[in-house]
Amino acid sequence: MPSRNITPAPPSSAASDWKVPLSQLSFTDDEERALVDTLRSGWWTYGPVSRRLEAQFAEYLGVRHALAVSSGTAALHLACAALGATAGDEIVTPSLTFVAAANVILHSGAEPRFADVVSLERPLLSAESIERALTARTRGICVMHYGGYPCEMDEIMDLARRRGLWVIEDAAHAPGGSWGGIRCGAWGDVGCFSFFGNKNLTCAEGGMVVTQREDLADRLRSLRSHGMTSLTWDRYRGHQFSYDVTVPGFNYRMDDLRAAILGAQLRSLDRLNRLRRERVGWYRDLLGGDSRWILPFEGGDEQSACHLFVVILDEEISRNQVMSRMMQRGIQTSIHYPPIHQFTFFRKVLSQSSDLKVTEEIGRRLLTLPLFPDLSREDVKVVCSALRESVRN
Ligand SMILES: Cc1ncc(COP(=O)(O)O)c(C=O)c1O
Hints:
- By secondary structure, the chain is of the alpha/beta class.
- It is built from 13 helices and twelve strands.
- The radius of gyration is 21 Å and the shape is globular.
- Bound molecules: pyridoxal-5'-phosphate (PLP).
- Residues 71-73, 97-98, 100, 144, 170, 172-173, 194, 196, 207 line the site of pyridoxal-5'-phosphate.
């Protein structure tokens, strides 16, 4: 049966006040059917649907192992734990990202060491910027494919192998993105995905941790479920009667209800990413060649999952004023991201005093515009003319 698009109007709560929200869910009755089938199956926690999703995700990504977890943060925490990050270690990571990776690095006992991004046009870490941040204590690297745009993973993996470091890819923005024909998340020792409600792929809250390495897959699987040697699902099927605990782990499991939604979302991912890419093209056509802003990642959309569309405003422009003027026109904007090293907590605990000039400049000047698969051409025009009017003094 062909999928009918049943993406509803936004709820009549706060979100509906926006004429153009920053992001909006996209789904068809495929998600609805999958969810109802699982509800009726009588098994809601981690079980057969989660296992199917893992196989589907592993195949999509071209990796040997994919483990469904409760969030992107859980995926990152498991990655740090499985790779053995511990007190005294440093992990090189961007400051221009969501705080999840830095938080879980600290929870593992290690310390984040922030590397600067390359430029305003390319707000990503590179092998060179990572190399500048390495110290004798560096054990690993955690890169992030900002906005869905891939880091230069061949060079970063070369550097890591030369220096004996492991690599985590925070691919929360990048399901479907790729570098050199290999999917984001499949390059590093471990790849981590988030399925939070504003992501390209979502089941409200959820995540995935992927790896090619057998040893890491075993450790990740065990740590995901309290270090237990069998799961409730295995015991229900009569495969095991009891369990042992071999390591102190967590409960970071996905459940089958959300796995059902995600399986349907994954079937739509390439189509939804194409729609996102098309909208990014509309923005580039309408906003390109204007000296009042920079549009990063020019020429890079084909390899990107196109999760975010951002502009870097001219230094003379007041971003707060632009954001409130856009808000008055019913257009939601955002900032991805306030740099992590400038947050109160991180200012207090970090020993680092390194130079993060580009990150800080982007942190001051960056503005995120609405982007989602159902965004109409008309709304893109509305956003662009609102931006033009809002930057005037
Ligand atoms: C880059 C990045 N990493 C990690 C996360 C954490 O994911 P989650 O919210 O699923 O824990 C997010 C999402 O919010 C993110 O944007």
